[in-house]
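dumping the sequnces here before i forget
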Amino acid sequence: MSLVLRETALAFRRAPLPSLLSITTIAFSLFVFGLFGLVAVNIHDVIGDVAERVEVVAYIERGTPIETTTTAMGDIQAFPEVESVSYVTASEALARARRELPEFQSVFQDLEANPLPASFEVRLKPEFRDAAHAAAVADRLRAFRFVDDVRYGGDWVAKLDHLRNIAAAVGAVVGAAFALVAIMIIGTTIRMAVLHRKDEIVIMRLVGATDGFVRRPFLLEGLIKGLLGGILALGLSYGAWALVNGYLLRAAFFTGPEAALGVVAGGLLGLAGSLVSIGRHLRSV
Amino acid sequence: MIKFLNVTKEYAKGAALSAVSFHVPKGEFCFITGHSGAGKTTAMKLIYMAERPSAGEVRVSGFSSTRIGGRDIPRLRRRLGIVFQDFRLLPDRTAEENVAFALEVTGARRSTVGPRVMRVLAQVGLTGKAHQYPRELSGGEQQRVAIARALVNDPTVLLADEPTGNLDDRATRGIFQLLRDINAAGTAVIMATHDLDIVKSVNAHLVELQHGAVAYDSAEDAGLQSEEGGLGAEDGRPAAADGEFGESAAP
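..and the predicted 3d for all of it:
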């Protein structure tokens, strides 16, 4: 193992400029992918924020006994799609309307009786915040006899679904394209590094080094280059994010695990690139 | 020890060797001669199994080209030392490091590397140049480093493919003498060359290739002449001659 480390260190020491160049190339191709990742993460966050407002409201008939509503609340809470249920009394509804709709201030002022019904506000779990599940929950709520009407903004939830599908499709296609470009660039970079040391591989083979022995220093070199490139790309992405966040708009950055995943992916790409190009040279002698 | 049995090697552009048979016993000095393109280098590649025959069989130190697996090739090559016309030294390592490299890649223990490297450098007469880089050495000295690298694993056979092709007369004589000394110490040497002066200067086994076929084999000649004497022909050899390496079966 010590020889592998020594050979790898020697490779960097003997060719510092080409090594730096390949690390930078890897870094920039991962950086482009990282920028796309940031856009994707932020779009995902925005859609998530909007989706949080997906809510099913069941209006309750006037005069429904409190025991009935309390029992029903327990039942609704037990629906698999439901995250939480809250009971909004008629007077709470009126207070909220006064607060949130100031342009109708005069209308509410002159009321003698509260025209607003009490309601259940049902929040769905994140994975069920789409049109189909909202409709299913609405149907089940309608089945309660004391429920007068159910609203869940079917139209805009459907639009949200559509937006989500478009974002996912575009994300997958563009992401795959960027990833492919990054893989090709990294593969070429590593291949050039291996080509640079073709003579060494030939000599190692001729003096009786096993394939595994020949491979190891190159694999380690590819892994290290990929990891360093990944770390550099992460730094560049952070810089770009800080600029945008500071001067243009508030945006989210990668979470810790996402950032770590990016760096590890860089390392694995370097490793895979080395594996492929070494294999080619091993077959030639 | 090394046997070519009806070996044919075809490339896309035509046959490099056709139905070649010869035998190099243990400890022998053997020349393979012929013009450029006669098939010398192909024959060498078949011995260190960088190439496999299209037909026929090559046997080297108990390994057979028909049975050897990819994993056995490094084991075969550790029994061979290989020297080329263009030296093939790593330019960014010193003479000592170039020789040590051949030992290290075989997984030799580090404590044994230094002494063994110095021993073979002394053997080729380069003790004082151990720390010099190839570019600081003459052609003859670079070839000596390459020979030291080939010797460091104590090979049973040294393959030299036009080892003097890039050298002047003086260096050529020096390298050839070194190869003879190595042979005298018990290592078989197979030298591919088109330098007839060298070939004529000694009485050694000679295999001449022409257009990929054996045009002359001095061993067969001697065998025919001494048929009555018995021991000249390869079939008349005592069975123990190749016994050490188990000629018949690859491990």
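The interface with chain A takes residues 48, 50, 70-71, 74-78, 80, 82, 88, 90, 92, 101-102, 104-107, 110, 149, 153 of chain B (CB under 8 Å).
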